Amino acid sequence: MTDTLALVPSGIDTYRQPVIYMTEDCHVCRSEGFAAQTRVRLDLRGRWIIATLNVVKRGEWLEANTAALSISAWQAIGAEPGDRGRFSHPEPPASASLIRAKAYGDRLSEGDFTAIVGDTLDNRLSEIELAAFLTACTGDRLDEAETVALTRAMLAAGTRLDWGMQTVLDKHCVGGLSGNRTTPIVVAIVAAAGGLIPKTSSRAITSPAGTADTMEVMTPVNLDAAELRKVVEAECGCFVWGGALNLSPADDHFIRIERPLDLDSTGQLVASILSKKAAVGSSDVLIDMPVGPTAKVRSREAAVALGNRLREAGRQIGLKVVLHISDGTAPVGRGIGPALEAADVLSVLRRRSDAPADLRARAIDLAGELLQLGELADEGSGRACAEALIESGEAEAKFLAICNAQGGFREPSVARQRLEVIASRTGVLTSVDNRVIARIAKLAGAPRQKNAGVRLNVHPGALVQRGQPLFEIHAETSGELEYAHAYAQAHVDVMKIGEIAS
């Protein structure tokens, strides 16, 4: 069988991209005309995958006539030691021409998006083709009809949970505001009130932490659909990473490309949010939209426009969407990074005197709106009800119960390396650049290193003295700490200090 090779695991993590490694003088490479970055099809026992080929020199670490598979490729094909796989050229992806059409400004139909989503999930599209598609959709390049079409295509490609005729509540923040980790608190409050809130969350895309990253510090989040349902039926809520559930699975492929490119698309954002909300079975969704000069949404007008798009697209797929516009001028809480944000969440739930007041207030506002939306509180009394559930300790108890149902609760830990950044002058802190402070946290290792990030010591409006610590960088290694500190020193205006009013 001249088109087969022995398969071995490479042990190389390529995230969700299947990669195959062959030697440059491999007989399959020569006979099939494979070269570096060629897309190849691998068949094994009735299963197949399409992967990207990397070519290595024989003897470096790979034997001749052997193909090494990345971790994701090995798992996807279900390979076992001793297997031999058959390699061939895959058929060209039918959606490649649709991507080119979109790049030139053509409008795409739901069938077109379905083809692109299908080829994405089959790994028929290369990294370059996926990047081209997402780039062609950036900004406002998807109109309302295309946004709905993409949402439906993404939703149809995965699993959809069904909770019967019950009201199923959900909450989502569009992001762009560091430390705004209200979701765990909101879920605990709503579930304590008896509301059904099966919360699935994403990992960070361009931020130092997503809700799933933060919750993973305290409890397992990689639950499958059966495990999620068991937790929700027992405790009314959950904190689960959506990527493990096959809910709108194409979105995770898109995120993998969007993350390094730091791309933002209004239509893609709407499709990403709503397809996952509909997939988890939500009926009523509250969208938190922070607005500020360095947040993701820069103006109230932009927030209203995005909110209208979300509401209309939601209506067309059967979701009731309510918009909550919030202050996005500065980070929320003290922690920026998974463990640091987890500590803030716990301090609010535990009613500590030093808990971040802004995080507490935001979470209570949002939970109050959801309680009213789900008719768990009378109109106008939602906020008071939410606050009472915090003060009574019921929200904390529900939070711990959900964590225990998911596999147990653990306390956040603290980074080994820490360094303070101090004020160079006396004055009033006037602003914090959300994007720069988030960048510092990411350079320190967040979210990959769960304990890494930034801890804020002051917020806008505070009087600071020269030499006073403004924030503290947390890292797991000295190299990452120095890297983040150097960036902070090069961006001294991350925290602007103005004159004290006379």
TrEMBL record:
Record's keyword terms, sorted: Glycosyltransferase, Transferase
Segments forming domain Pyrimidine nucleoside phosphorylase C-terminal: 428-495
Keyword Protein transport (UniProt): no
GO cellular component, one term: cytosol
GO biological process, one term: pyrimidine nucleoside metabolic process
InterPro entries: Glycosyl_Trfase_fam3, Glycosyl_Trfase_fam3_N_dom, Glycosyl_Trfase_fam3_N_dom_sf, Nuc_phospho_transferase, PYNP-like_C_sf, PYNP_C, Pyrmidine_PPase_CS, Thym_Pase_Put
Catalysed reactions, semicolon-separated: thymidine + phosphate = 2-deoxy-alpha-D-ribose 1-phosphate + thymine
MF annotations from Gene Ontology: 1,4-alpha-oligoglucan phosphorylase activity; thymidine phosphorylase activity
Pfam families according to UniProt: Glycos_trans_3N, Glycos_transf_3, PYNP_C
Enzyme class: transferase
EC number: 2.4.2.4
SUPFAM superfamilies reported in the protein's UniProt record: Nucleoside phosphorylase/phosphoribosyltransferase catalytic domain, Nucleoside phosphorylase/phosphoribosyltransferase N-terminal domain, Pyrimidine nucleoside phosphorylase C-terminal domain
Recorded family membership: Belongs to the thymidine/pyrimidine-nucleoside phosphorylase family. Type 2 subfamily.
Protein name: Putative thymidine phosphorylase
Species annotation: Roseibium aggregatum
Record gene name: pdp
